[in-house]
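The records we work with from here on pair a chain with its fold. These numbers are not coordinates but entries in a learned vocabulary of local backbone shapes. To see the layout at work, look at the sequence and tokens printed below:
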Amino acid sequence: MAVECAEIRRHHRVCSKDIAGVHLPTNVKFQSPAYSSVDTEETVEPYTTEKMSRVPGGFLALTECFEMMKVDFNNLQELKNLATRKPDKLGIPVIKEGILDAIVVWFVLQLDDEHSLSTSPSEETCWEQAVYPVQELTDYRVKPGYHVTMEVSCQDCYLRIQSISVLDLEHKMEVSKSCTKDEDLLSLGNEAELCSALANLQTSKSDGVEQTCVLESTEIALLNNIPYHEGFKMAMRRVLSSLTPEKLCQVMDVHCEDDGMNSEAAQNNTVQSSEPSYVLDVSEGFSILPIIAGTLGKVKPYSSVEKDQHRIALDLISEASHFPKETLEFWLRHVEDESAVLQRPKSDKLWSIIILDVIEPSGLIQQEIMEKAAISRCLLQPGGKIFPQYVLMFGMLVESQMLVEESAVQGTERTLGLNIAPFINQFQVPIRVFLDLSSLPCIHLSKPVELLRLDFMTPYLNTSNREVKVHVCKAGQVTAIPFWYHMYLDDEIRLDTSSEASHWKQAAVVLENPIQVEVGEELVLSVQHHKSNVSITVKQ
């Protein structure tokens, strides 16, 4: 069925053309990996998957459920014909007004004449559903009377849904033909009919040469995270405006743990007013933060993106922002050893700002982040900053039967009496990642509490081992401890990784044995951070 789903939309479509003062030009076309053509040489799954019953914010069905394809796995000839079978053309009537975000696909597996299994989102099942995000329409709004048309094929072992378009009822016959092959346009008859059909076809053809930039779904969600970019812009402006020549002439601590490097930096603390401020973004994946930094005055921003298509896209965005040529530099072109990205911008220069990737999209702390922060402190000019400056980790006690059942095999009843739990549960992972706390089926048994502090500018404030008392505010069984982070760019600007706009997911420690608690009780949690790994245990 066709659905409206804001969560799918923000992970597969860039929803804004202006981000923190940076304009995204029309000749840069962003796509998620779920968009692919059968003609491409790459073997990429043309869909993503979601547990639609738990997707944050839910979804709205825009069409009735419809059958896309029927395959008899006992018919060998039918299976062979799938590879050469022409795409089926479908036209599905819209029943509700909304925004067309995706086609959601599930299966009914007919075991025999009496027994079947369904992977439908309305069923309690272990399966997720296949999601085909809709991209490249000029207008995604639909209403009753419209039809969603598409071509369905299975020519390369993947179920593909292509040529998705939206037709209104008045022009259904004309435009449905123009959605197929070019030669079908000739069958429309006179020129007036052809022009009418093309005018009503709601698929986009861009003017001029386009640069296609394929981003991971988390990277697209990051671009759509407006508070993230606005927060960085404000924090960078504060740091850069504070680095005036008068202030830079004062000898300041550069937060370096190595005395030799500290004294070397102090000898270079006088910066001529004609020199730019150097900003390095070493966050992973596609990032426009260097371009945002470039809009803040005399700044020399460096990006650490690796892919050529990402660099071309950033160059085009820089041109649209009217940057002088070569204002934006790609740092990996200047570094001989890519494993040693953290270096001085020049032999006699230091960085004003270094942006680190601290939290993984999965909800875990990045590996070796404390080591990277230590090196970064030695590369900052006096008054320079690492972003984020520090991170607070928060967590709470919850009761979640879903997390219990999805983390370990429970007993023998569901395995037809076979006692496989002792063997399978040896491979149990103690921390679940890529969770959405907002839609996680659970009961909150406590309020959020601070678990850990990671300070990248002032390391002596770190709390790598601590005990935290948690007050129980609701009776129940503690089965898990979800956690998330508040990232502080400075003491006032904070990014919450659990917010609705966040591109980060959350993680949770699942207890091996649930703990019964009553209102008013306190549980003591032992929290440890060692080599970028966090462990949370309950002290009995």
